Amino acid sequence: METINFENVFEGKLAKNEMVEPKDWMPENYRKHLIRQISQHAHSEIVGMLPEGNWITRAPSLRSKIVLLAKVQDEGGHGLYLYTAAETLGISRDELLDNLHTGKAKYSSIFNYPTLTWADIGAVGWLVDGAAIMNQVMLQRASYGPYARAMVRICKEESFHQRQGFEVMTRLAFGTTEQKEMAQDALNRWWYPTMMMFGPPDAESPNSENAMKWRIKRETNDQLRQKFVNQTVPQVEYLGLTVPDAQLKWNEEKKGYDFSEPNWAEFKQIISGNGPCNKERLAARNKAHHDGEWVRAAAMAHAKKKNEVYEAA
Ligand code: 3HC
Residue 250: beta bridge partners? Predict the structure, then answer.
């Protein structure tokens, strides 16, 4: 009987743009790469609820409160889809959460900045979710089936989040002088941290080579960052605001903007746990997990009872 070369089958799937599914053979490093990325993506969604949740009780109207509540609730759901996708790779939810709560795992640096004014909620929805969409639309074509499929639903909901943020920024930018100043202040503080969301420069990205080879990433960190700047500058101009970058200028030859890089030393500090809110975010996540123990125990007891009744029937 002919022996199957599983490596060839795996490579063949990638070459034919076919999805790799949980039950398929996959290289151990591919599996580890996916667990790292998908779990950090999930952690980002859950931690991302904190800076936005900070303004639910202070939203300026009932409508904006309802919209923000829906957005924050969506982020929790995105975390659920992604933890579930990560579990298909053979890691438990407990281990995933333990990695977050002990500071072992990363989550997106952007969520370690404070949301100081209501305009920050606009900037987060507009810029952060806008950047997330740019990245996640690409990830809809990732080679791992459960990840790519989770992205389809997440991208649909992110589009609502981006519109929510842009609407907040529009109201402020076309409001009173003070409101426009608040919008500009938020843009100044969120512009560069948002660009860090796409990861370090390609030349300093240890994971990108494999990510591109395994068709997890379809575009590089720098390519997506460039796309984000090209798409966002006209939106800033529409709002009558100013991109906080004196070097920004249109480059006709490359049909894109030349722009200043973010402060990568600051980035390294943030992802090493030394950002403005890292400690606060982890403390909040650990407290929430501890306080939610009784809910998990009750849900497990209920599920166990239902199972017993089902099996007895
Ligand atoms: N924040 C934190 N860590 C980051 C980072 C960021 N913005 N960018 C890169 N890193 C880390 C990487 O995790 C890696 O560290 P590790 O090897 O210990 O994991 C290191 O910096 C080097 O970066 P690489 O470019 O080599 O790493 P990747 O190839 O994994 O690329 C990435 C980084 C582009 C963030 C990629 O992991 C990715 O696309 N992740 C999925 C998308 C995601 O996580 N988005 C986060 C936002 S979710 C969100 O915004 C919620 C929205 O609803 C508000």
Answer: 257
Give residue 4's pLDDT.
79
Q: CA of 247: how far to CAs of 175, 243, 310, in Å?
A: 28, 10, 66
What is the distance between the alpha carbons of residues 200 and 189, in angstroms, rounded to a whole number? Answer: 19
Q: CB neighbours of 90 closer than 8 A, spacing ≥ 6?
A: 31
pLDDT lower than 50: segments of the chain? none
Query: What pLDDT is recorded for position 313?
Result: 85
3-state secondary structure 104-135: CCCCCHHHHCCCCCHHHHHHHHHHHHHHHHHH
> Pairing relation of β-strands 249-251 and 256-258?
antiparallel
pLDDT of residue 86: 98
Q: Where are the beta strands (DSSP E) in 232-292?
A: 249-251, 256-258
Query: How far, rounded to the nearest angstrom, does the alpha carbon of residue 26 sit from its chain's CA centroid?
Result: 25
Report which DSSP code applies to 262: P
Gap between the Cα atoms of 122 and 131, Å rounded: 14
Residue 164, CA atoms < 13 Å, CB-side half-sphere:
25
Predicted TM-score (pTM) of this structure? 0.96
The conformation of residue 313, written as its DSSP 8-state character, comes to -
The Å distance, Cα 17 to ligand 1 centre, comes to 23
Distance (angstroms) between ligand 1 centre and the Cα of 145 equals 19
Q: Which residue CA neighbors atom 10 of ligand 1 most closely?
A: 199
Tell me which residues have their CB closer than 6 angstroms to ligand 1.
Answer: 36-37, 40-41, 44-45, 48, 75, 78, 106, 108-109, 128-129, 132, 135, 158, 196-200, 205-208, 211, 221, 271
